[in-house]
Structures are given as C-alpha cells and as structure tokens.
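Note to self: the last two entries modelled the partners one at a time, which told us nothing about the interface. This time every component goes in together.
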Amino acid sequence: MALEHLPNYLLSHRKRTALSQTEVAFLLGIQSGAKVCRHERFTLDPGLQTALAYEVIYQRPISELFPGLVEKIQDDVRARAKMLAEKELRSNAHGLTIRKRQSLAAILSAEFNNQLK
Amino acid sequence: MKNLRSKYIRVLGVAPSSYGCGFAVTEGENTLVAWGVKTVKGGNKNARCLSNVGNLIAHYQPTVIAIEDARSKGSRRSSRIRALIEKIVVMAKDEKIKVKRYSRKQVNLAFLSDERGTKHALAQYLAARFPEELSSRLPPKRRLWTSDDCRMDIFDAVALAEHCLRNGE
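The predicted structure of the combined assembly is written out below.
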C-alpha cells in the first residue's frame, strides 16, 4: 500500500543529531525553540531561509527533510500547469506559444523530474 | 526534483507499560521516523495513555498499528495493560487503521531466533540496527533488584513496528 510522506522529518533528524529545540533555534538564528516545535509538529511551514538553514544543520537536502511539503508543492504546480496548458491550447500556435506548451508539457511529464535529479 | 512518493507503509508500534507507553514510527526499510516514551503519572493512566496514542495517530497517520498480543498463552501483562491494549485496538478500528498483534515469543523468534531471548538482548540488537537513533537510549542491563527502565518501552515499540514491516503487513 502506497503512502503519502509526512510534511517534514525534522523531528527525527533533530533527535539523530542529539540537539535540543533551543539549540536548533539558536543555530537557525531565531529567538526560541517554540518555532522549531511548530515546524516539527507541522503547524507552521518554515520560510526559505529557515529551510536552507535546516539543510545545513541536518546535512540533508531539503527534499529529504520536507518530502511531504515538496510533494504538495509539486502537485499544486502541476495542477496549475495543467490549467495553463489547457488555456494555451485554445490560443493561436505562434512561436512563443509552442515554446510555452513545450515548457508546460515538461512540467507535467515525469521526464521533467528525471532531468532535475 | 525526484518523485518522492513513498511505496512503503507507516507503522506505529505501541508498547504500553507501567510508566505509560513507548512508541515508534517506522516507514520503509531502515527508517525510524519517531520514537520515545509518553510517560503518565497519577490516576487514570489508561485514559491518558489512550489520549497520547490518539495524538500519535492523528500526527503520524499510520497505516498499521503494531501492538503486543496480551491474549497469547504465557503473556504476563497486568489487567490494566490488557484493558489498555483492547482500548487501543478499538480506537484504531474506529480510525480504520489495521491492527497487528504480536506476542513476545513471535518478536523474539524473529529478531533473536530464540523465543526465550531477553528484552535486553533484543534492545542491544535494535540499538546495533539503528545506532544513530537508539544506541544512546539503550539502558544498562537490569539487575535482579531493579525495575525495568522506562527506555525499554522504546525498544519494545521499535521491535513491534519492525516485526510488522518485516512481515510485510
């Protein structure tokens, strides 16, 4: 049975490093461990700077730390790309539109994922 | 951007004890997502343990819950723990989560190839299997005159969850 990932795996990575929430908060440059707790309990999504800082602290890529969030963003972007592609299909096929359709098709295809690996 | 969809199940192992309950969440092979002990003190331990397990289910949304089979022959769990296990099973069924019960003998046989293996031997095996996560939590071997360390509940929960994954439930 297939399963969706959790939004993030910050808690398990923090426990592996034996750091406390307060220590992680200090490394992130934020005031208290409360925000770290919220990130770990999935009640708050971290911003880009914080996510990059987590990558440095836990020595893991963002896609491994936030797989559920990445999946959600991928799905959302693909859904919007599909809407845009359908809109583009109704318009005239001049040079720029063809290029645009190719870009949207790449976003929608699995090939796009492999290219970015 | 890899395709990150998991092809594995997520298992919540629950090991109730006199301290509260140990828990472990495993996902796929060699991935321990969460582990720990939820200790409860004072009266009505079962209600508070049940509430803790409910929170864990809501947070980790497991596909399967692995729990000790206290009904099996030779099980020496107290009546409170037996009642708690049954309540957890009912709660899991209400949430439409599969429940798998394993006796101590089954777990020992799977990991130690000896159904009479000790809890400490099992804990040592698991600490070696998950060194980053569990080696620091391994308590010293229990002496005859001391009671079980509450950290042992973590190892019991991990063993149940791992056994469930190994069986491909």
